[in-house]
Design a protein that fits this description.
The complex is a heterodimer of chains A (192) and B (326). Chain A is of the alpha+beta class. Chain A has 7 helices and 5 strands, in the order αβαββαββαααα. Chain A is elongated. Chain B contains 12 helices and no strands. Chain B is 69% helix and 0% strand. Classes of the chains: A alpha+beta (192), B mainly alpha (326).
Chain lengths: 192, 326
């Protein structure tokens, strides 16, 4: 009997659903709105002097878990703009087709030289378009909106708050033995 | 001779129409299944996906025709043809209107049950001839299933036979049209008998929830495991034809066949048949598959006693009911 009633309920459910508007939309013709950061791409922005910010330190290449970043650093050169010695990259290739979007490369970059861009939709018509070389990455930095994460900011956020943590246990230590000696005082102390 | 010509002409027309409906029903089923699951169903092939069955059949016919090396070749090739034949054969005695009937047998109901029962033989033959353990298991399940649903099926069919006092399908329809009820009169042995008949019909045509001989999740594809291309298509066509003809039989036996106001008999019969056909789909996309032992329990412990009771009720109605006694 239970099975019979459950069957009737199942049949009512399918009947009601059959007369509802389908949830499915025909994708290429109808595109549902997506979050701005639904997919990612990358950009290599310029620094404040108008030069490529990347100094070819290999940090992102080393941390990338899917090994999609390959670059060739130039060695130290004199910058034509500032006159200071710094390093550049000759080639920088990021294979978006294997990227897992973990953001680790952004987090380890000390010079804020690699950024993610906001991409509601990333599909392209050939695999080659997914291989981002230096020219594409620089073009992205001008053409696309950057997402919020920046190497320096992310590192700052993850760093433990050193000063507070070191002082906190020291402040507690003398307070603990003092508490039993004067039981009336903590109540007044809590209030302040 | 004229009866032979009449039968041949009407038979050819009815078979053609049935197969067309089957082809369209593939589209309809996919569309309905989609809507029941909040999907769209086929939309791209032709207007609203109407040409989908043609695309399906063309795809299936292109597939390589494989016969397993150790298979019983002749039986293997014969089984799908037999499956369609047995399913179509029952349509011969179904009256689609007072005149649209290929052969008006006096014992039409017996013929229908015999032809329906025959469908288990190609199923088992396919399972046996494939020389594949999953196919054989499916075939054995088909036999076990047929023994189970056969009894309530025949008993449920006995109810309209008893009430109408004839075994001719058109005779039963005529008797019902004298009472002008939507369902078989009287309702009480009639509608429960239809319920039993419908469940047994689902089991006989191997539709979900009783598609135990196929049982994709347990037996790969059951009896059709080794079948490809055209032969596989034939098996599926057989299943659809069986469901359609079964719906037509149910419409004739329990829902007054061609009888109905405002429209010619043929329209009513087709409408009733298609209504039941849709119900089969509705059940198929709503319920889960029974286990083999659950089917046995349902058939032997529930449906058979129920059907026996209904037959007794029908007999009592004929003997003691108002205007029932002959």
């Amino acid at each position: 009997m239970g099975y019979f009633l459950d069957s009737l309920r199942a049949m009512r459910t399918t009947l009601v659903t059959a007369f509802r508007k389908p949830t499915t939309v025909e994708f290429p013709a109808v595109v549902r709105p997506r979050g701005e950061r639904y997919r990612v791409s990358f950009a290599l922005p310029d620094d404040e002097n108008g030069e490529l910010a990347c100094i070819g330190c290999l940090a992102c290449e080393r941390i990338c878990p899917s090994l999609v970043i390959k670059m060739t650093p130039t060695g130290k050169k004199e910058s034509p703009v500032t006159g200071k010695k710094r390093q550049y990259v000759d080639t920088f290739v990021l294979d978006l087709s294997a990227c897992i979007g973990c953001e680790l490369c952004i987090q380890v970059c000390n010079s804020d030289a690699i950024r993610m861009t906001r991409e509601p939709e990333v599909p392209v018509f050939s695999r080659e378009e997914l291989v981002l070389d230096l020219a594409r990455l620089r073009a992205n930095s001008h053409a696309k909106t950057m997402s919020a994460g920046k190497g320096s900011e992310l590192q700052e956020r993850q760093e433990p708050p050193k000063a507070e943590k070191k002082t906190a246990p020291k402040a507690d230590a003398p307070a603990a033995p003092a508490a039993p000696a004067a039981p009336a005082e903590p109540a007044a102390g809590e209030g302040t | 001779m004229s009866a032979l010509v009449h039968g041949a002409v009407y038979g050819a027309v009815i078979v053609t129409v049935l197969l067309t409906i089957v082809a369209l029903s593939i589209w309809f089923e996919r569309k309905l299944a989609g809507r029941m699951q909040s999907r769209l169903g086929p939309t791209l092939v032709g207007p609203v996906g109407l040409l989908q069955p043609i695309a399906d059949v063309v795809k299936l016919l292109q597939k390589e025709d494989i016969v397993p090396a150790e298979a019983d070749r002749r039986l293997f090739n014969l089984a799908p043809i037999l499956a369609v034949f047995a399913s179509l054969a029952a349509a011969a005695v179904v009256p689609f209107s007072p005149s649209t009937i290929a052969a008006d047998l006096d014992v039409g109901v017996v013929y229908i049950i015999a032809m329906g029962g025959l469908t288990v033989i190609p199923t088992f033959a396919a399972g046996w001839a494939s020389n594949n353990k999953f196919a054989l298991l499916g075939g054995m399940r088909a036999i076990a299933q047929s023994v189970s649903y056969g009894v309530p099926l025949v008993l449920a069919t006995l109810v309209p036979i008893l009430l109408a006092g004839t075994m001719s399908v058109s005779g039963i329809v005529t008797w019902q049209s004298h009472h002008h009820w939507i369902a078989v009169w009287p309702i009480i042995p009639g509608l429960p008998a239809f319920f039993v008949f419908f469940l047994a019909l689902l089991a006989e045509s191997n539709r979900i929830p009783f598609d135990i001989p196929e049982a994709e999740s347990e037996l790969v594809a059951g009896v059709t495991t080794e079948y490809t291309g055209a032969k596989f298509t034939l098996f599926y066509m057989g299943e659809y034809v069986h469901t359609l003809v079964g719906s037509a039989v149910a419409a004739a036996l329990f829902f007054g066949g061609w009888d109905g106001p405002f429209a010619p008999g043929l329209v009513w019969m087709v409408a009733k048949t298609l209504g039941l056909f849709v119900c089969v789909y509705w059940v198929r996309w709503s319920l889960l598959r029974f286990r083999a032992d659950q089917l046995m329990e349902l058939c032997w412990k529930r449906l058979t006693p129920l059907a026996v009771g209904l037959v007794l009720l029908a007999a009592a109605w004929v003997q003691f009911g108002p205007g029932g006694a002959r």
